[in-house]
Design brief:
100 residues; alpha+beta; 12% strand
Length: 100
Amino acid sequence: MKKTFMNVKIANATVSVPMCEDEETTRQIARMVSDRIQAIEENAIRIDSHAFALRAAYEFAAALHDAKKDQQADEQQIATALDAIATKLQNLADEYAIQK
């Protein structure tokens, strides 16, 4: 699937990045990267930022966002499966009149 790209501002540079989820999420990730770069710049004598480095930082943050979203979906799937198991166990207990 081909990704849609959009321009965002990262550390005062306009960078074309692949959209992550939607425009607002993409902008939030760009802001996270900018904040991180600003923190690094505050502790450095000189930073030589290039668009490719900024894009790599953005893509790392986007991958992290996607991983967290996947984890939430996995956790929801596990919770649903556990609920189904609990229901089946309760049905068995009721069927065989097992006391709690």
